[in-house]
Amino acid sequence: TEETLVLVKPDGVARGLTGAILARIEAKGYALVDIRLVEPDRERLEKHYAEHAGKPFYEPLLEFMQSGPSVAIRLAGNRVIEGFRSLAGTTDPTTAAPGTVRGDLGRDWGLAVQQNLVHGSDSPESAARELGIWFG
Ligand code: ATP
C-alpha cells in the first residue's frame, strides 16, 4: 500500500482547522500511520521546498512555514498520493473546487504566498523523500 506526506500548514493549525482536515482524511478511509506537531527549522524547509528555490514566492513560503507549528501526517492507502491531492484541491484556494479542503476552507489573504492549508506529496519519489525529511 502507498504512503504520502501530508502537512497541515501553519495557517491550518493557527485557524484551528486541524481536526476538520483530519476528519475529511479519515472519512475518506485513509490510514493514519504517524502524526506529529513539528516546528521546522529553515534547513528542513530548504530540503522540503528545494524545487522552488529562486522562485518569487520561495522566501515568503519559507517564512510562512516557520510562522508556527505544522502537523505532519504519514498517510497510507491505495492511490493515497493522488487521492489526497484530490481532497486538497488545486494550489490557489480562490479557484480550488468547492468540496476540497482548499476550496471550502481557504481563501486568498493578499499575501506574497498562498496560505493554502495543506501540503501533499505529488509522486511516489516525492513522498519517499518528504517522509524522510519530516519523519526521518
Ligand atoms: P503543495 O506542494 O504545498 O501541496 P502545490 O503542489 O499545490 O502545494 P507547489 O507548486 O508545490 O504547490 O507550491 C508549494 C507551495 O508554494 C504552495 O502550496 C503555496 O503555498 C506556495 N505557492 C505556490 N505557487 C505560488 C504562487 N504563484 N504564489 C504564491 N505562493 C505560491
TrEMBL record:
GO biological process: CTP biosynthetic process; GTP biosynthetic process; UTP biosynthetic process
Stored SUPFAM superfamilies: Nucleoside diphosphate kinase, NDK (SSF54919)
Swiss-Prot/TrEMBL cofactor(s): Mg(2+)
Catalytic activity: a 2'-deoxyribonucleoside 5'-diphosphate + ATP = a 2'-deoxyribonucleoside 5'-triphosphate + ADP
Enzyme class: transferase
Matching InterPro entries: NDK-like_dom, NDK-like_dom_sf, Nucleoside_diP_kinase, Nucleoside_diP_kinase_AS
Domain Nucleoside diphosphate kinase-like: 1-136
SMART domains: NDK (SM00562)
Superkingdom assignment: Bacteria
Protein keywords: ATP-binding, Kinase, Magnesium, Metal-binding, Nucleotide metabolism, Nucleotide-binding, Transferase
Molecular function terms from GO: ATP binding; metal ion binding; nucleoside diphosphate kinase activity
Pfam families reported for this sequence: NDK (PF00334)
Keyword Ligase: no
EC number, UniProt record: 2.7.4.6
Active site: residue positions: H119 (pros-phosphohistidine intermediate)
CDD domains membership: NDPk_I (cd04413)
Positions bound to ATP: K9, F57, R85, T91, R102, N116
Database matches in PANTHER family: NUCLEOSIDE DIPHOSPHATE KINASE
Family recorded in the similarity comment: Belongs to the NDK family.
Protein name: Nucleoside diphosphate kinase
